[in-house]
Design a protein that fits this description.
The complex is a heterodimer of chains A (119) and B (774). Chain A is α+β, with helices and mostly antiparallel strands and 119 residues long. Chain A contains five helices and four strands. Chain B is globular and about 75 Å long. Classes of the chains: A alpha+beta (119), B alpha/beta (774).
Chain lengths: 119, 774
Amino acid sequence: MTYAVTEACIKCKYMDCVEVCPVDCFYEGENMLVINPDECIDCGVCEPECPPNAILPDTEQGLEQWLELNRTYSAQWPNITRKGEVPADADAHKDEADKFNKYFRANPGGAKAGEMEQA
Amino acid sequence: MSDVQWHKTACNLCYVNCGIEVAIENDRMGKIRGDRSNPKSQGYLCNKAARIPYYVHHKDRLTTPLRRRADGGFEPIDWDTAVAEIAERVRQIHAAHGGQSFALYGGGGQGNHAGGAYVTGLLRALGSRNTFNALAQEKTGDFWVNGRMFGGQNCHTAEDVHHCDLLFVLGCNPWVAHGFPNARDHLNRIRKDSARKLIVVDPRRTETAELADLHLAVRPGADAFLLAALLATLVRRGAIDRAFIEAHTVGFEAVRDALLRVPVEEWAAAADISSADVDRCADMIQAAKAMVVRVELGIQQGVNSTLNSYLEKLLIMLTGHFGRKGTNQLHTWLAPLWGNSQGKVYAPTGDEVIGGLLPPNSFPRAVLSDHPERLRAVFVDSSNPANTAADTMEAERALRALELLVVVDVAMTETAALAHYVLPASSQYEKTEFTLFNFEFPDNFFHVRPAVLAPLPGTMAEPEIYSRLARALGILPGDNVLGPLRAAAARSLPEFDRAFGAFMKDNPAAQPAAALVLYNTLGSTLPDGTGVAAVLWPAAQACARRNPTAVRRALDVPPDVPDARLGEKLFEALVRSPQGMAFTRHDYEEVWSLVETSDRKVHLAIPEMLDWLGRLDVAQTRPDPEFPFVLAAGQRRMFNANQIFRDPAWRRNDPDGALMVNPDDLASLEATDGAWLAVQSKRGRIVVRCQADVSMRRGQLALPHGFGQAYPSADGTRLVNGPRANLLTAGDNRDPIAGTPYHKNVPVRLAKATPEEATAEEEISRRIHAAVAA
């Protein structure tokens, strides 16, 4: 019983979800967030907060890849509990297709994320 | 431009009452988030809280007082007419039959206790202490045991789940139903910490059982046999805390002797638990440094309810897991939610009055008997007995038989539909509210939450409603009398205190209605419309007198403030803390100051309970051949709550309130998942949608509570959404002491619904959910 962050988050990362999560279970990668399935309490408060509708309950069909990705990277990436600066081009990527293949990066996010992007 | 304002308030869906923040935009409630500044819940909330706007804004809110017409329908009337007519009927019935013929049913729900004090004041002024409410169909067996063990029926155990190393969950499913602060968060923490363990006793493999180190899938109705077998095992092993027993309890020998007579293997088998699992459970308890026992309705509404509560308390006491960090404790009260009425009997039904409350299971008899003091007039406040009391047909017959039924509620409930007068209350977010669900230790919390929305036009807050009735009845003095008190309150709290004390001394007749006097004097001077909190003035004084050190710590009061002014400081903080506040802060060892026996010891031996234990017969656990299934009538689920949610749109799943059934049982009926089944008990028959679920035991069924409400469909027809489970329950399937219903053990049989029934139900479901989608 968990929610998972899916492809629509990539390169958008609005982080509104982080502000409302009662148990601080979001983890930050370079250009997306994930949910730790062992910490998520299935409250669903984050779901309507996400502008590109990237957060889905695990009861939805076909989420296996994303559930796996959330589990894997929540163990590697740093915890995020406060909304940071939204990427300037977030709106431009909001309705884009195939973002995983084009942009996904396994690097952790956080303060250094912007610098890595430039490097 | 949108103008979104975030306001602090609390969730009203379970008794944890988590602090929340709600977004108000154009007089409507939108988003909900956890309030990180709430000292109890610290930002936590669950899946249900986000749906609160469906409680606030829906098509079934009442907006005008209603009067029953001779033809059975209702007509709208204005408030002045309603108050004058009700007062006249009250006077007539009172003159003919006296105060004993009146009763209150309800007096608040999971989020609203503020009105309860005021309607109670009105009833007391009429000479009645008769109160029926939900606590007396859930918890009074526990209160009875507490009265005998701890010396007061409102000595109530707290559960320090957050710090335990063994959580023993008995008859509840906190992942879904919560019951302690931040439940899911803490269950996750226990699961992830190999040094902390979880035992779950539940017939069903619940969501919480899935997380457990040990799940004992007890046979429904056999909890007492399992608990006794476990206790006997611990005693036989010597795995009890002799030093604790010696220092803090009396009566151990009688308990030990009774437990040594328990046939452990036979009773474990009756509970369908292997002796090896009983031993494993005992091993885990023996290894625990700090066990906490978390109990709920699974045992309290199960067979042998009061005995279950006794055995559960013995488990805590014999193992010495009490009064330390991570164990069970007692807790303080700002004001006790229930009373202490040991030894009192209610004449019309012969029931023992427990915690000052009468059991809803006896409500029909209290009305329909021929006893001279039978009930003739009932005020129902925030309660819906036509759906929630056992045996719906009998409850409705009693409600119809009353000479006066007044219902105060926010919506047209099933009970309101039977009333002579219906008075529309403002919703819990349109007025200042609080609850007395303050069950924590060592820090205990209180939350006075100001209104976040304006009252819906035509509605009124309960204190105002009862003030008007009290004024019309001559119970509440006029402004010429109250004016000086109001003026004193405007000057200062100490001045008000002196004036109020003198007034009450000079006007003993006003004492029962003190709450109404407070609201109409002190209340008018309180900030942010928190006048309803005026009734907390004497409560704050009493709490500070009882627990001066703990109040001082919680409020961080400077040492130069004398104890005599602590109550005033506490009251001022209460009405100015919209995020909630701690009102007492204890050290763990101070728990013994909360025990009310004269020797401050826990009295372990209760003769009635030891007799009951001695009379237990395993034949009780065998299924009834005529009704071979055991139905839990009133299961807590992800999207059910109490009756206050009436709009079916609030649910994100389980739209029809399905009957959960083991797939093998379904197959043996040759029924398919999702089909319509007929459930037949000795009291009634209902048709429900079924849902195959592997978490259920064979022979076990569950229906949710919180369904069975009528709601206007798209074309305005009122359609009933989901099962009215109490059409199946019988008033006499109840605890012999507390009168609490055995709702977790309703014997039924199952059959496929007829094709006609299935078609009709499918059509109703379709129309309800089409209205939802629209």
